[in-house]
Amino acid sequence: MPQLLLTVEDYRKLVDKYDTFLFDCDGVIWLGTTIIEGVKESIAFLKSQNKRVVFVTNNSTISRKEYSKKFAGFGMSISKEEIFSSSHATAVHLKNIVKFSPDKKVFVVGGQGVKDELHLANIRFCNKETSALKKPADYKEFVNDPEVGAVICGLDRDINYAKLSIAHLYLTLNKDCLFIATNNDSTYPVGDFNLPGAGSILSVLETSTKRVPTIVGKPYKTLFDCISADYHIEKSRTIMVGDRLNTDVQFGINSGIDTLIVFTGITSEHEAMDPNSTQATYAMTSFGEISKLA
Amino acid sequence: MPQLLLTVEDYRKLVDKYDTFLFDCDGVIWLGTTIIEGVKESIAFLKSQNKRVVFVTNNSTISRKEYSKKFAGFGMSISKEEIFSSSHATAVHLKNIVKFSPDKKVFVVGGQGVKDELHLANIRFCNKETSALKKPADYKEFVNDPEVGAVICGLDRDINYAKLSIAHLYLTLNKDCLFIATNNDSTYPVGDFNLPGAGSILSVLETSTKRVPTIVGKPYKTLFDCISADYHIEKSRTIMVGDRLNTDVQFGINSGIDTLIVFTGITSEHEAMDPNSTQATYAMTSFGEISKLA
């Protein structure tokens, strides 16, 4: 069962024990468009203590730069180097983990965030598709590009059949073509609704190619390996803070680091403390409580 | 092991034993755009013997009327009543099996064939989607239509994120909304390529909604129930003729009827006669051989 942190003394021990704090954002820092009380001050306090903070998000549709602007909108000065989106992680994975050849390029099924981060990492990419590729006969004109050495799939709100078909063809025709997904969340919340997420778009290519992708985002350890490729990380002095057991806490467990579940998002205290749930190391009401140390 | 039919006497016994012959098309009647030798004469012979022939296809993108034109192009006079496409079967399933209420309507993710067959069956449908529904915020404007009582998903080459999202919303918001797939083939052949099929598009909604659809097309028995709803079928006097073990032969097995595998398409004689393969009742080189009886 997670250790429930209740007193200022508990909070102080937590802050003393770790050098690097990895944060999920929605449900921990903000709820949709509203910042959670005390969190801004808590993060400022950590920084004043020379703690490293890294914001880890599965959202691949916007770049770190755009994400930084979202923080600025809450009056928080967070640099892009403090943000680890699944789009950036995917670029790091290609560049630093699998050492993707500069002779090769990537075909992108995904949003602007993926394209922006590939561009920043000097990885060549294409997402050529034409609406003319609608009739079966059009595919007879398909000319394979042997330079395409990876297909990246993330949430793509401009998805169409031609784009999916071309990704499918590269994945099945090009020997050794890598298959990488930014994340595999089946849905994501928009207002009162849930809509199909990256994992649902990804399932088209998983089903058609019968291939298993490398998944970068939480809860997969790939993301932690990417963070470790960018920063020196001492696992025993690093903690993951999140509001979801199956993504944030599981990510910490998969990465071999401690975890803190907060009750400002999806997971209730009742659920977090249930011995049958995924077990976080610590639990607390809100990360905003840390501001009491300031 | 299937009984291998080799002689004219074998063929005559086959024809005598059955009243209704269900046929797969590609690989049995034609190969892409070329008719298989002797098949036209074989079908004509069956008809001259007052046998009923029904052409059964998982292709939902064109209507039976359009399919009839394809036969005409090969000089074969096949009426739409002799064709059972998965699009028509889906309409029959809604109308005659589940008795879909005339007060309700269907949201269609699928091609023109599905819309044409729903129209012929007097089933109301919509496939409203707007390219404006691209930004997350647009979904806050989504107004649920409680009249939508079913989502049909088939191969849709005009797929887009808004259409998938709206289908997802009806399936998750409307109590008792039926989830029906025309078929679940993961790919289909186009020239030298395979492209993502209905089953791959379907997987988006299966993943996002975590719902299990009713699948109409081969190899599922749903299709046989639909055929039985349209025609009087005596199972012991009905046979399924196909070139694929996992769709055509399995469809016959699931429906409790005899099967004939031919070697003019996907399956080789070696594979069909392998005791570890799905077991057809009979096997023969080509259905064109039946023309020797004429």
Care to describe what's here?
Chains A, B: Its EC number is 3.1.3.41. Chains A, B: Substrate binds at residue 218. Two copies of one chain form a homodimer. Chain A contains ten helices and 16 strands. The radius of gyration of chain A is 20 Å and the shape is elongated. The model of chain A has no long low-confidence stretch (mean pLDDT 94). Chain A has helices at 8-17, 39-48, 64-73, 86-97, 112-120, 161-173, 198-209, 221-230, 245-255, 269-273; strands spanning 3-4, 20-23, 30-31, 34-35, 52-57, 83-85, 105-109, 125-126, 148-153, 178-181, 187-190, 193-196, 214-215, 238-242, 258-262, 282-284. Chain A starts with a strand and ends in a 10-residue tail after the last strand. In chain A, strand 11 and strand 12 form a beta hairpin. In chain A, strands 1-16-15-14-2-5-6 form a seven-stranded parallel sheet, sandwiched between helices. In chain A, strands 8-7-9-10-13 form a five-stranded parallel sheet, sandwiched between helices. In chain A, strands 3-4 form a two-stranded antiparallel ribbon. Chain A has two domains: 3-58 and 219-293, 3-Layer(aba) Sandwich (Rossmann fold), CATH 3.40.50; 100-215, HAD superfamily/HAD-like (Rossmann fold). Chain A is an alpha/beta fold and 294 residues long. The A-B interface holds A 134-137, 139-140, 142, 156-161, 164-165, 168-169, 172, 186-187, 190-197, 199-201, 203-208, 210 and B 134-137, 139-140, 142, 156-161, 164-165, 168-169, 172, 186-187, 190-197, 199-201, 203-208, 210.
